[in-house]
Design brief:
Largest sheet: 8 strands, antiparallel
Structural class: alpha+beta
Mean pLDDT: 94
Low-confidence stretches: none
Number of strands: 8
Number of helices: 4
Radius of gyration: 15 Å
Strand content: 35-45%
Helix content: 25-40%
Shape: globular
Distance between the termini: 7 Å
Length: about 140
């Protein structure tokens, strides 16, 4: 069943705290939208945040049109479940490196020297934080 809301529920936040990939689409992007897989974090305040370089295509699209959405689905082998969050997105200059470090620990084995080097490379580069402020939340759970 799909329900519409404007905020994330406790159950949504529990689902989003798992190391799942989200698929980000931006209104200011190409038509039809071409979602990209991303790491993300759901905050206690009910926003979704991710990081990217300050000069990326994502940021350029969002500066023209701040609307974006992310879709997250349960992996194969689990009961069908997905969550879609759409809303205005802000580009924040602070907190991206801390977010990156948290997400890398969630998605990667940082005991692997190659992954630790990958993280060091990301942290050495400029990053911004993208924050999706939910205006429409849709979900399906079977």
């Amino acid at each position: 069943m799909s329900t519409d809301a404007s905020s994330l529920t406790t159950e949504d936040l529990e689902f989003l705290r798992r190391p799942l990939h989200g698929f980000l689409s931006m209104a200011g992007g190409p038509l039809p939208p071409q979602p990209r897989p991303v790491w993300f974090e759901a905050t206690a305040e009910g926003t979704i945040q991710l990081f990217t370089g300050p000069d990326t295509l994502k940021v350029r699209h969002l500066r023209r049109d701040p609307r974006a959405s992310i879709v997250v689905a349960a992996p194969v082998g689990e009961r069908e479940r997905w969550l879609s969050v759409a809303g205005r997105t802000t580009v924040e200059p602070d907190g991206a490196h801390d977010l990156c470090a948290r997400l890398a620990a969630r998605y990667w084995d940082l005991g692997d020297p190659a992954r630790a080097d990958d993280l060091a490379g990301i942290l050495a580069a400029d990053q911004v934080r993208l924050v999706i402020h939910p205006e429409a939340v849709r979900r399906y759970t079977h």
